[in-house]
Amino acid sequence: MGKDTKKRIEEAIISLEYQPNAVARGLKQKKTTTIGIIVANILHRFSTQVSRGIEDICHQYEYHTIICNADDDPEKEKKYVDMLKAKQVDGFIIIPTGLNEGLYKDLVKERYPLIFLDRKVETLSVPTVTLRNVKAGYEATLHLLDQNHENIAFISSPLTVSTRKERYQGYVKALEDKGAGIKENYVFGGDMNHLKDKFSAMLEAKDPPTAVICGNDRVLKSVLPVLKQQNISMPDELALITFDEVEFSEFFTPAITTVEQPAYEMGEKAADLLLQRINGKAEQAVGETQEFEPKLKIRESSLYKR
Amino acid sequence: MGKDTKKRIEEAIISLEYQPNAVARGLKQKKTTTIGIIVANILHRFSTQVSRGIEDICHQYEYHTIICNADDDPEKEKKYVDMLKAKQVDGFIIIPTGLNEGLYKDLVKERYPLIFLDRKVETLSVPTVTLRNVKAGYEATLHLLDQNHENIAFISSPLTVSTRKERYQGYVKALEDKGAGIKENYVFGGDMNHLKDKFSAMLEAKDPPTAVICGNDRVLKSVLPVLKQQNISMPDELALITFDEVEFSEFFTPAITTVEQPAYEMGEKAADLLLQRINGKAEQAVGETQEFEPKLKIRESSLYKR
DNA sequence: TCGTTTTTGTAAATCGTTTTACTAACCAAT
DNA sequence: ATTGGTTAGTAAAACGATTTACAAAAACGA
Questions:
Q1: Beta carbons of A69 and B55 less than 8 Å apart
Q2: Please, which pLDDT band fits residue B286 given cuts at 50, 70 and 90?
Q3: Above 90 in pLDDT, residue B225?
Q4: DSSP labels for A61-88?
């Protein structure tokens, strides 16, 4: 277009105070440059870090994000999917509750660009960004075994999603590799509401564990008060290691050993994959799984010192 | 409408797999049941807590939220406002960077429902949800004075926004009320990038402060490493108190004394006010400021023990 | 200057709803 | 059977952009 008409148009834009209407635009173009993000539970630090990674990439490409918190509730998850569909989002990034297979399947059938994050849904071939969780569980356990712990507890929220199942598998595998049997009563994988009681009882039983692995940051948040209450000192009386990043973990006494995930990068990756799919550059990527490496950060809480 | 036609319609909805299109609906109705949230910097814990409060209320009323992170950058803030306008949001909740008066003014002029959060913009009469920050600063300082501290440092990010200015005012007022003079060299309110160096120098100077107040959680995050590095122990060598909630603060050694804001509730309140304005029930509320009370949670880091 | 290409102006259809209007059909009660 | 009132059905305009089409005008090279 000619450059003086261009100028004329720009003048008109300011003189008429024209403001584009993305809703009308979206209606006609069938494209909203908006993606929907549904996280299983925003209370996990992982979720917020991942969201930032997603947002930063989207911001680069002038896409926008609507973040929804399913609150571990499949009903809510479904409601949000419907809402986001109604809003004509161009694609989804979902940390699935795992309890909505039909829903996910429909999304695939309707050819919505979709990326799973954190958790795999085995029955579907959807590109997924996840951690090598078996390895994460294995390394955490191995580290404790190396400190001569034999009675290692594994405390987790319900072992319903791949993430937790795999971490547990890693735990089991490490114990087996070292010839240590797994003891049922050192394992808890259940409702967060009972976690404190069960863990408390575990510590008060005879022959209590000398080390504990927390399945994620929310578990840690329940476990620490129990230790304080029972006046158990780390790491001498109980060694501790937790999955997920803990803010200020180096300022705890003792500093907390963690197995961290590159959450931010995982978010970036997921956004990348999704935008590629949306823009048709990556049909072939469907079904691919991107695995990230866990990072064991050894601090004081897991170091044997007797 | 007759109940058999209603049934007929419902059947058609499923047989045709009808899915409503909120974009078309929004276009016609000039209403998207979506609000825009712009936070000055999502890295503050306050911002994420506040967002949750907002979201929960919005979810109740079937409104949706788009959260944007201005990253302390007025340019970005403006860009996001334009984007959200284009998306035809029904209203805004903004934690203002404070450096965009014209932008805010336009929003008011264009009669957008708007609520400010956390920070006041003095020159505009916009309903604002905020903390009694002067009181917060006063109480924090008074508490340290009560522990017989006289050399109290005040470390903050730039004193450009009302929140920080007021906390500082409270600090000054408490010192004055107790007849203690304020010493310029105990005060830092500047760029986060220089914070560590400046604070480090402050501690190494002769006659260093015996207590420090951190202006917010991000400041704390810079201050703690300095203490660790200089091997300064709390609270004997330096008492510490920080604004904002710190996760796990009771598990620090020493447990960190905090001045907390009811962030979640403040978010709820802001959302409430905004939805009332959107639905025309509260024209009169314009200009009102809702102030919340700070909560001083005394823990070990501020308790004198020599 | 002619013919060709590019730029400009104008108009109409479309996206999927809501809104308004109007007519037709139905039901109950007088 | 007539009246009034409700419910059904149909149609068309509107929301604010994009898209397509076509005609008119301008710019260009030979």
A1: yes
A2: low
A3: yes
A4: TT-EEEEEE-TT-HHHHHHHHHHHHHTT
